[in-house]
């Protein structure tokens, strides 16, 4: 897949661009991730498995795609994901849900957002929303799913505004904090 560059936007005098691609530099992403989560790197959520392993696993998954956000030419954030295969463990240990078919997967059902982060100095400029909507606007799956740490109320509220539904909770890996599992149907328009 060729990279596609979205129209540049200027916010507060800074030019920002979002690039949707299937090629990423895992080490560069890991460095930005560590800056974003500097205060929480001591938590198991950010250590086991390592961020490099998680980023690499996602980037190597069939159907991988990322939206990379740049501000004045510098990587400022990313949203990465891949389609869930029928044999996925994504939904294991999900708390009770009203939908018994929620965790069933088939080819083309769910695109999972596995990582999403924006440098603190570029938050509140809608870069995260732009990356998310531009990545998801081109997806052909029926729905998108993602997990948000229960303590991340800022992202939780932003996703509710673009109609993500809370479908249950789980800890993505042993020892991690509980995460809210969110789902919404696709397509997601670029103006969400």
What is the overall silhouette? globular
Mean pLDDT: 89
The tally of beta strands, per DSSP, is 9
Largest pleated sheet: 9 strands, mixed
Which regions contain 5 or more consecutive residues with pLDDT less than 50?
none
* Number of H- or I-type helical stretches: 4
Write a compact overview of the structure shown.
With 192 residues, this protein is α+β, with helices and mostly antiparallel strands.
Question: What would your notes on this structure say?
Answer:
There is one protein chain. 30% of the residues are buried. The chain is built from four helices and nine strands. The mean pLDDT is 89. It is globular, with a radius of gyration of 16 Å. Strands 1, 2, 3, 4, 5, 6, 7, 8 and 9 form a nine-stranded mixed β-sheet that branches. It starts with a strand and ends in a 7-residue tail after the last strand. A hairpin with a 2-residue loop joins strand 2 and strand 3. The protein is of the alpha+beta class and 192 residues long.
Name a few traits of the molecule.
4 helices, globular, alpha+beta, 192 residues
Q: Layout of helices and strands, plus pairs?
A:
Layout: E1 4-5, E2 9-11, E3 14-21, H1 26-36, H2 51-60, E4 65-71, E5 74-83, E6 110-118, H3 127-137, E7 143-149, H4 153-161, E8 165-170, E9 179-185
Parallel strand pairs: 6-7
Antiparallel strand pairs: 1-3, 2-3, 3-4, 4-5, 5-6, 7-9, 8-9
Helix pairs in contact: 1-2
């Amino acid at each position: 897949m060729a990279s596609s560059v979205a129209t540049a936007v200027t916010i507060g005098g800074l030019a920002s661009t979002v690039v949707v691609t299937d090629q990423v530099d895992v080490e560069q992403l890991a460095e930005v991730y560590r800056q974003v989560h500097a205060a929480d790197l001591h938590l198991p959520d950010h250590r086991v498995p390592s961020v490099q392993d998680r980023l690499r696993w996602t980037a190597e998954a069939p159907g991988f795609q990322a939206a990379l956000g740049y501000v004045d030419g510098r990587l400022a954030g990313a949203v990465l994901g891949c389609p869930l295969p029928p044999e996925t463990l994504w939904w294991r240990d999900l708390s009770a849900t009203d939908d018994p078919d929620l965790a069933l997967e088939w080819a083309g059902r769910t695109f999972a957002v596995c990582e999403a982060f924006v440098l603190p100095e570029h938050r509140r400029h809608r870069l995260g929303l732009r990356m998310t909507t531009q990545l998801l606007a081109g997806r052909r799956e029926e729905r998108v799913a993602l997990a948000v740490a229960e303590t991340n109320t800022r992202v939780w509220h932003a996703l509710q505004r673009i109609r993500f539904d809370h479908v249950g909770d789980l800890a993505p890996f042993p020892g991690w904090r509980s995460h809210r599992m969110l789902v919404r149907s696709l397509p997601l328009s670029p103006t969400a």
